[in-house]
Amino acid sequence: MPRIIADISVSLDGFVTGPDPGPDNGLGTGGKALHTWAFSDDPDDRRVLRAATARSGAVLLGRRLFDVVDGPNGWDDETGYGAGEVGKPAFVVVTSSPPESVRLTHLDWTFVTTGLPDAVTTARERAEAVASDSGKDLDVVLMGGGATIGSALDAGLVDALTLHLAPVVLGSGTPCSPAERRARWCSGA
User: What is the DSSP string of 20-36?
Assistant: First the structure.
């Protein structure tokens, strides 16, 4: 059975975006520094990214993150899931209301409106199907954002947490979880 792997980049001071994130400024002011490693030519960074994305049988994300990646300044032919390291896994979006249209129509999107546990089940089923077809062990990568990952952790839906610690201090932005969880899971404890 595919594991649910929460995978997110976080600043040294515990933020997963800089201040003022939104559809036109997905990672917030200064937040692009969180993902510098993903676009680096460093062989170790490339290896980490390749390993993290190669295990993706399906990818689970929240609606706010979907709005960023599918927005006008979101993913394109050069910048997308895995920074070009892998193919195109199925994407499952947990949302209260599906979008009226999707810009990235070449990707496989499923919108689940019945809550996070059902979205996890759907993503796991998609990953199992791909794993069965490919003969590989694949997982569900929960790429976020921070609120979705925090909710999944609180609900006991996550099997493993991968944090990519970025050498940047953002000062404010979206914390990797509310204060009561922050010290526990952002420290990897």
Answer: S-BTTBTT-TTGGGGGG
Give Cβ neighbours of residue 137 (< 8 Å, ≥ 6 apart).
2, 55, 131
Alpha carbon distance 60, 110 (integer Å): 10
DSSP annotation of 166: E
DSSP 67-133: HHHTSTTS--SSSSGGGGSS---EEEEE-SS--S--S-TTS-EEEE-S-HHHHHHHHHHHHHHHHHH
Give me the residue label for tokens 């709005």.
67
4-186 — its CATH code? 3.40.430.10
> Per residue in 98-155, pLDDT tens?
999 999 888 899 999 999 999 999 999 999 998 888 888 899 999 878 889 988 988 9
104 Cβ partners below 8 Å, 6+ apart?
69, 70, 74, 75
Domain map (residue ranges) of the chain:
4-186
Other residues' Cβ atoms within 10 Å of the Cβ of residue 184: 11
Task: Give residues with Cβ within 8 angstroms of 103, minimum separation 6.
Answer: 70, 71, 72, 74
Q: What's the 3-state SS for 119-136?
A: HHHHHHHHHHHHHHHHCC
